[in-house]
Amino acid sequence: MERILVSSCLAGRRVRYDGAAKPVGAALFERWRAEGRLVPFCPEVSGGLAVPRPPAEIVGGDGHAVLDGTARVRTDAGEDVTAEFLLGARLALDTARRSGARIALLKESSPSCGSDRIYDGTFTGTPMPGDGVTTALLERAGIRVFNENDLAAVDAFLRTLETTEP
What are the helix (H) ranges across the chain? Predict the structure, then answer.
């Protein structure tokens, strides 16, 4: 059975920067949970950040630029939390590998987990195209990343993986 690394906040855990969760209530998600496919993980908490915590955004690029050392992750007060985000991303990759997950379902717009969109680093709520730090690392390792708006695509990819396995 194919496992899915999933943002803990999507699984209902109160780990977001504001202490909230963003649970996915879709029947498909609940089926995966009942089947034991979900591997909940929060890279920011695992990287050492508290709940609640100041909001953070990537300044100077996206998660790929952070991995390449050309962008930083900063809080709205200017504190550099890049090291915590990098550690959380590495731990997420380790968790995916240990569980055998080749798919990740991560929270859109997050500086860790965004897969299509993140915020632009100005703390004005302005979105921009890009990946979060964890998404960038997982993708570089060959793990397919989706966001919570792509459940049908996740399901189709799961079926493809399971029908092509020996």
Answer: 27-34, 43-46, 63-67, 82-99, 133-140, 151-164
Q: Is the pLDDT of residue 45 over 90?
A: yes
What CA–CA distance (Å, rounded) separates 37 from 99? 10
Domain assignment present for 137: yes
How many angstroms separate the CA atoms of 161 and 155, rounded? 10
Residues 32-60, mean pLDDT to the nearest whole number: 98
Given a contact cutoff of 8 angstroms between Cβ atoms, the answer to whether 99 and 5 are in contact is: yes
**CA end-to-end span of the chain, whole Å?**
13
Q: Is 6 helix (H, G, I), strand (E, B) or coil?
A: strand
Q: What does the pLDDT look like over 68-126, one tens digit per residue?
A: 999 999 999 999 999 999 999 999 999 999 999 999 999 999 999 999 999 999 999 99
Distance CA 164, CA 67 (A): 32
Q: Is residue 159 part of a domain?
A: yes
Range of the domain at 113: 41-164
Contact 99, 39 (CB under 8 A): yes
What's the number of domains the chain is made of? Answer: 1
